[in-house]
């Protein structure tokens, strides 16, 4: 009877020869190691084995050192994180000559107002600026994102608007980011819309509170005051717009975000005309950009074509890290400083700082500008200095007219000669 496998005799022979083969393999390996050592000790020895091994060793490629090796993704992200977290001493942002009060507003919800406010504030503070965040949203999400307590009973911006407290009484310093403070919001702020209706000068209460706070913090006043607004155009948003010099509008890269933009701009125009003539739309930031979709590109192109230089070059992409950070009471810059979202917000903060640090203060109200008008006498004549300037201008104009007539005469004579 035949077997599919080996015969019993074959198996025994194979088993019997295994120790011999192992011994032979060990002797061969030992001889090769000895030969290699001999080759290294005497590379020019006149032996065939040594020369062959030496030639093989010469063909082995040289291993690159760490400095020559290409950077890995983890190393790149670690480098970005280090730059973000230790940027105060490395790359400080230019500081504005006067405090910039910026309202982050868009009546559409879910476009990234609170996320933008929190991360821009942390980015500016990490790069050397003093920043105050005012949370004017009853949901208190900006307070949550900064890790500031805002439970019921906590002194909040509600107490400031109703008049029981000053802004200095409710401002809380951030635990880990130097130079960053926050005026938190509690659920009590939801009732402020109704309570403000019966108060005098209800639209300017936040503006007066900020002016008082700046006077009380002379020498250590914040460079930036960022006001986070609720997704509405009620009295809370009106107070924020009246108190600000600039408006930053985050726009989600979807068409729904463009529908209510015209209404927001109309509201800003009304406030500029009646309550705050120095208010300007200074910055537009594109958020939740998804490079995989053509829709995001179309919306971004439409916004840039319409608003031009107001749109920041930096675009905030969709990022899971940006959404995860508030759950830990942090901004994305402290939660995952090497992520794409953190880098995007740092670049947006840098653009905003570089664009505005040379800007002059907004024009004063008309009642304050009267003092800057040229003085006049009782007869309605201008003072001597103004008359002198006018005479100088008239003289310059007269000389210019004579010069033009002389050039015309020369041109006419030249044409006649030809």
CATH architectural label of the largest domain: 3-Layer(aba) Sandwich
Low-confidence stretches: 1-17, 35-49, 358-403, 410-418
What integer is the average pLDDT?
A: 75
Cα-atom Rg, whole angstroms?
37 Å
Strand order of the largest sheet: 3-4-2-5-1-6-7-8
Any overview of this molecule?
It is a single chain. By secondary structure, the protein is α/β, with parallel strands linked by helices. It is built from 18 helices and 8 strands. It has an 8-stranded mixed sheet with strand order 3-4-2-5-1-6-7-8, with helices on both faces. α4 (113-126) packs across α16 (340-356) and α9 (205-216) crosses α10 (235-243). The longest helix is centred in the N-terminal third of the chain and has 34 residues, at 8-41. Residues 1-17, 35-49, 358-403 and 410-418 have low confidence and may be disordered.
């Amino acid at each position: 009877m035949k077997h599919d496998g080996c015969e019993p005799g074959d198996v025994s022979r194979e088993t019997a020869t295994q120790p011999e083969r192992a011994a032979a393999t060990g002797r061969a390996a030992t001889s090769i190691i000895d030969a290699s050592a001999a080759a290294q000790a005497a590379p020019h020895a006149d032996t065939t084995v040594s020369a062959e091994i030496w030639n093989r060793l010469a063909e082995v490629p040289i291993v690159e050192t760490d400095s020559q090796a290409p950077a890995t993704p983890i190393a790149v992200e670690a480098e970005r994180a280090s730059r973000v977290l230790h940027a105060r001493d490395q790359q400080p942002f230019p500081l504005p000559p006067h405090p910039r009060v910026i309202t982050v507003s868009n009546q559409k919800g879910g476009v990234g107002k609170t996320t933008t406010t929190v991360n821009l504030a942390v980015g500016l503070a990490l790069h050397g600026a003093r920043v105050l965040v005012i949370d004017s949203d009853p949901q208190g999400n900006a307070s949550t994102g900064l890790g500031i307590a805002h439970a019921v009973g906590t002194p909040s911006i509600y107490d400031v608007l109703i008049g029981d407290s000053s802004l200095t009484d409710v401002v809380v310093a951030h635990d880990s980011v130097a130079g960053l403070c926050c005026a938190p919001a509690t659920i009590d702020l939801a009732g402020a819309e109704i309570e403000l209706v019966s108060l005098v000068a209800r639209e300017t209460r936040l503006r007066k509170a900020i002016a008082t706070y700046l006077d009380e913090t002379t020498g250590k006043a914040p460079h930036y005051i960022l006001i986070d607004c609720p997704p509405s155009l009620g009295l809370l948003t009106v107070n924020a717009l009246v108190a600000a010099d600039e408006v930053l509008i985050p726009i989600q890269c979807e068409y729904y975000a463009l529908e209510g933009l015209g209404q927001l701009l109309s509201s800003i125009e009304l406030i500029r005309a009646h309550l705050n003539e120095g208010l300007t739309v200074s910055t537009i930031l594109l958020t939740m950009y998804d490079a995989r979709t053509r829709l995001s590109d179309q919306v971004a192109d439409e916004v840039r074509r319409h608003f031009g230089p107001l749109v920041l070059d930096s675009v905030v992409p969709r990022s899971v890290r940006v959404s995860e950070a508030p759950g830990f009471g942090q901004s994305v810059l402290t939660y995952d400083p090497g992520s794409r979202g953190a880098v995007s917000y740092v670049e947006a903060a840098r653009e905003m700082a570089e664009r505005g640090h040379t800007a002059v203060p907004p024009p004063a109200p008309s009642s304050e500008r009267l003092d800057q008008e040229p003085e006049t006498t009782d007869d309605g004549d201008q003072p001597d200095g103004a008359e002198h300037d006018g005479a100088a201008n008239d003289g310059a104009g007269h000389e210019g007219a004579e010069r033009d007539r002389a050039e015309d005469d020369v041109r006419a004579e030249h044409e006649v000669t030809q």
